[in-house]
Amino acid sequence: LGTSLLQSACPAHSPRDRTTPTRCPYGLYAEQLSGAAFTAPRHTNLRTWLYRVQPSVKHQPYEALESVHHGNHFEGTPVTPQQLRWNPFDIPTGTGVDFVKGIHTVCGAGDPCTRYGAAIHVYMCNTNMSNKAFYNSDGDLLIVPQQGTLHITTEMGRMEVAPDEMCVIQQGIRFKVDVSGASRGYILEVWGNHFVLPNLGPIGANGLANPRDFLTPVSWYEDNETPYEVVAKFQGKLFAVKQDHSPFDVVAWHGNYAPYKYNFKNFMVINATSFDHADPSIFTVLTCPGAIEGTALCDFVIFPPRWAVQDKTFRPPYYHRNCMSEFMGLIFGQYEAKEGEFLPGGASLHSIMTPHGPDAKCFQGASEAELRPVRVADGTQSFMFESSLSLKTTKWGLKTCKKVDEEYWRCWQDLPKLFNPNRK
Fold first, then answer.
1. Which of 5, 166, 268, 336 has its CA 20 to 30 A from that of 261?
2. pLDDT at 13
3. pTM higher than 0.90 for the full model?
């Protein structure tokens, strides 16, 4: 998140008086990883210097890989403004499927070649990547586990990311994922910019996701000559190279471009305390700025446990037509506006200007409830990927996965007509 760090697995790891000396300590190679243009303003200029056993360029030629369900090409895919809800996506139970093979693209918009857009994926896997690494040339990945802890090795070190946490692995950073068993989760991929903390405005200096709670790996490396396959996502397609050494041989690094994780339990909730339902933007953890000031390319929003105390107010989310696309997922528990219907490991998409809101059961319950201070969402964690893009579903997301709930629209059909011109 812009903080400049220095990490080393060996003492006196790097020269203090220059970045690229004639000979680096320990016989390491110096390599810069740029996350922004050289001439980007200082507050957005991202780069890290890596001191590694072998330079990244030492590999065999790239070869194209087949990718049936993972990609960023949305032309020719089905289009519908219909409210969509997916039942939980199936986790493979047979032959081992690793993290990369388990990624399936649900929807997206834009083009990684022109550096503006986003894609939303789900992953379902059950085995380790072993001697295989992955990096994304197109953009950043925000990963939200729903089932199973991810043990992630990156060039900068290792992270353990469990449900109720998330991590960001930026463009170009190589990583691999090991799992302890059946695993499932969600991925938000953005092209053209990086995630940042939202501005707080009149909230002040503190609140929402505080910078101190984001954790970055400490330096860790392996020095071996084990053959590795490195898979690259480039212009929406997958390629692979072979090399005779580990890509995780970075002994030391310094800079401000590194992966990080965040625990949702650390989120400081801001909420309405007198009347009315505050807009969900108050739950924004990270934002990826868009082309129009104040309008995000994508926001990452969570709905954590909290108090509801508003007086004379309909407390659940209001009925809404939005100029943004709203993709929601449920990590665990029951979402307040769709209890028992919206399930962990599933998802929903409410497209631009498509109406949505509480179902009939929620509306009736909230309209008649005693308005006293109550806890909301205890034992539950849901989230939203909100985007200014008009997201297009893939063929896999709409048909092939066979998880779309065709009866979702019915949850609003029992909403009664209550209008009475003689009642005030």
1. 336
2. 64
3. yes
